[in-house]
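Lecture notes, continued. The same structure-token format from the folding unit now serves as the input rather than the output. Read the line below as a description of shape only.
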């Protein structure tokens, strides 16, 4: 996808001091301090503007201008500020070191290119920006464990975008019209649910009731301020429902940083990707990265080995066991769930053995023998001591928890998986999207009118019918038309410190209801195999996780947020 933003010659000159391209939709940034890069990237959460436009706002002084001035005067000031910047003796910080750059590149080429000392490239990080890329590009990027990125939020940005991705393979086929019709239907349904969602939440939270829940400081503010805040929060809630209808072809924006070694790997493997869009993304990353890291991006030739994996081994592992289900008229009625795929029955003893070995002149085996002679209650008392001084701001428990892994399978909607996948320290596996797995319905939709529920289900059925017609010829490309309600599986291997971290960060009352439900399910699944993590010797039978957690003897290891709070800010 190419950028649609048009810049003046002066703007182009200014931007090229900070980015590698003013035309490409994927580009690298340069000579921007890390904190400023973070500030610019953070705008993606709530603002669909191009990263480059935000740079211009900085340079023109748009962010700090006097809003009381007439528009004509403000425009004039912006132009003057930009001209002043171009005429200044500004020298990018990196230019100061340019004298030694060629010698450094010779060093990189000799040791990295010739002898394969890839650790050099591990410490060279580069910032990139992707504008107008589909959800499938964002998914592929997220699977790089060292790619740290921020993405446009479905909660605060209206995704009613006519520039959705048109896959060239499908558009050149007999399915072009069906592809477009399905996309337009889903966007229409998305808009329908924004309006229905707003109406629903305004009935559920009338303005006066909402006002009473505001802070004393906000209550004193002008009526216009409160009205805008109220509308913004109602809209955010409506977006949470409507996002279930968003197809994967809808464009998003993201900024990320990645080390040179991983960038090199991504380029080489993405060049073999079955989706043309991701192959095109690889070319733009190579072009932008090549300008910034020419001596380190040396091995970016197509990698057919990793490409074979991205092609899912050309279907050689495809089984026919679900053929009958795939040809039914309705998606399978699966539900959101969490399954533990692997765990260690002696996890508590192993964790405490690591704690003892870390704090004494003991081997691990010696520590294990000591722990084996302790009672269950003594072991739980040791756990309590580990977290005795833990505050709400302390994210991690103890290195011993990081030594114990479990396997988890989430059965959830694509929208929630999109959020859970971001826990990149975990090892992750994900299948190709298909509505054969079924779809999730927004929980709030149960409170809405029958015709609203029926509209949603009809949209899912129509998308499934389109998928079944296209997927034989286009098994990868057909994912573009699948909505975020589509159920899929995300399998993770994670250590127990990551488990408690995910439960805490994803159960916050401000979080999306879908992934909140996922981590409630996760907490229940983990507590059943490791009841000691909540201070129990045995998991209480015939109780749900909320009852179990409410009465838990220990809540300082797993901190599940069950309360409700104000609406989204």
């Amino acid at each position: 996808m190419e950028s649609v933003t048009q810049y003046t010659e002066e703007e182009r000159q200014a931007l090229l001091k900070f980015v590698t391209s003013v035309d490409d939709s994927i580009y690298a940034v340069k000579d921007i301090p890390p904190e400023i890069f973070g500030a610019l990237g953070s705008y993606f959460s709530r603002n669909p503007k191009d990263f480059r436009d935000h740079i211009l706002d900085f340079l023109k002084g748009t962010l700090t201008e006097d809003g009381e001035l007439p528009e004509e005067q403000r425009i004039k000031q912006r132009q003057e500020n930009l001209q002043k910047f171009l005429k200044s003796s500004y020298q990018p910080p990196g230019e100061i070191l340019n004298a030694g750059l060629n010698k450094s590149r010779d060093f990189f080429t000799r040791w990295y290119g010739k002898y394969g000392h890839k650790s050099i490239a591990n410490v060279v990080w580069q910032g990139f920006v992707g504008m107008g890329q589909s959800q499938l590009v964002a998914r592929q990027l997220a699977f790089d464990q060292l790619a740290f990125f921020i993405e446009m939020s479905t909660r605060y940005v209206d995704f009613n975008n006519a520039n959705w991705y048109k896959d060239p393979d499908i558009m050149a086929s007999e399915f072009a019209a069906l592809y477009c019709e399905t996309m337009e239907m889903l966007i229409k349904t998305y808009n329908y649910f924004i309006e229905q969602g707003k109406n629903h939440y305004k009935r559920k939270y009338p303005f006066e009731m909402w006002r009473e829940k505001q802070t004393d400081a906000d209550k004193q503010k002008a009526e216009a301020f409160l009205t805008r805040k109220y509308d913004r929060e109602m809209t955010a809630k409506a977006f949470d429902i409507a996002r279930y209808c968003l197809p994967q072809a809808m464009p998003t924006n993201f900024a990320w940083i990645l080390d040179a070694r991983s960038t090199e790997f991504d380029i080489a493997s993405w060049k073999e990707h079955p989706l043309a869009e991701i192959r095109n993304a690889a070319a733009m990353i190579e072009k932008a990265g090549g300008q910034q890291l020419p001596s380190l991006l040396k091995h970016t030739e197509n990698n057919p080995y990793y490409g074979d994996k991205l092609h899912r081994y050309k279907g050689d592992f495809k089984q026919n066991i679900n053929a009958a289900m795939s040809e039914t008229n309705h998606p399978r009625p699966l539900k959101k769930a969490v399954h533990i795929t692997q765990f260690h029955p002696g996890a508590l003893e192993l964790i405490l053995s690591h704690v003892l070995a870390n704090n004494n002149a003991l081997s691990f085996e010696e520590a294990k023998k000591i722990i084996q002679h302790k009672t269950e209650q003594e072991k739980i008392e040791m756990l309590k001591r580990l977290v005795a001084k833990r505050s709400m701001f302390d994210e991690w428990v103890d290195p011993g928890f990081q030594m114990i892994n479990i396997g988890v399978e989430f059965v959830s909607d694509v929208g929630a998986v999109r959020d859970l996948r971001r826990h990149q320290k975990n090892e992750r596996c994900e299948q190709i999207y298909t509505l054969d797995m079924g779809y999730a319905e927004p929980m709030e939709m149960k409170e809405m009118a029958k015709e609203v529920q029926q509209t949603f289900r009809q949209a899912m059925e129509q998308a499934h019918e389109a998928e079944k017609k296209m997927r034989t010829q286009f098994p990868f490309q057909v994912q573009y038309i699948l909505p975020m309600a589509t159920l899929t599986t995300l399998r993770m291997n994670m250590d127990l410190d990551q488990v408690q971290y995910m439960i805490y960060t994803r159960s916050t009352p401000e979080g999306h209801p879908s992934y909140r439900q996922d981590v409630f399910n996760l907490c229940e699944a983990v507590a059943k195999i490791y009841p000691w993590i909540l201070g129990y010797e045995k998991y209480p039978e015939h109780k749900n996780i909320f009852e179990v957690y409410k009465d838990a003897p220990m809540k300082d290891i797993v901190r599940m947020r069950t309360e409700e709070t104000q609406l989204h800010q």
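Point for the exam: The CA atoms of residues 373 and 516 lie 39 Å apart.
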